[in-house]
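Consortium newsletter contribution from the modelling node. Members have asked for a concrete example of what our holo predictions look like. Here is one, prepared for the zinc ion complex that several groups have been discussing at recent meetings.
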Amino acid sequence: MTRRDRERAAWSLRAVIRVVAREVFGAPMVTRHVPGLSTPLQDVEPIAGVRAAVFARDVATGQVREYAKQARGAGHSWDDIAQGLGLDRVDGPQTRAQRAYLHLAAAHWRCTSCGALVTDRGPFKTAPEANENGHATGCARYAAEITAYRQGNDQ
Ligand SMILES: [Zn+2]
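And here is the predicted structure:
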């Protein structure tokens, strides 16, 4: 993602927050003078803006957890999720995969291979049998993970 893409995405998200402030929190529009700008800005009343931004933050936090659970269900590793979370550095004794798990505390997800609800104990042990419980008998994904682990190709 380029810097320009990030700026454009941030503008889009701010616009959505202003819409929520107006339509959900009833914010009136106010005129705000910004030092260095010759024309005043039209914006939402700031307390309603705070409420809308906090709501957006809470929704985004829930979406991070939901997408992480979907990613696990689809077979992505905790290390893949750590990359998505932007956890690039490893500090202390935990791996970044373990930090991603602890960050999200996402313990259950639905396996897209077998359709079962799986309990995920995190990436603290290397054997799949020690980390995931609940796959349906004959789950192809789980069988592949176990085979990969036993062949030493895990990670
Ligand atoms: Zn499964």
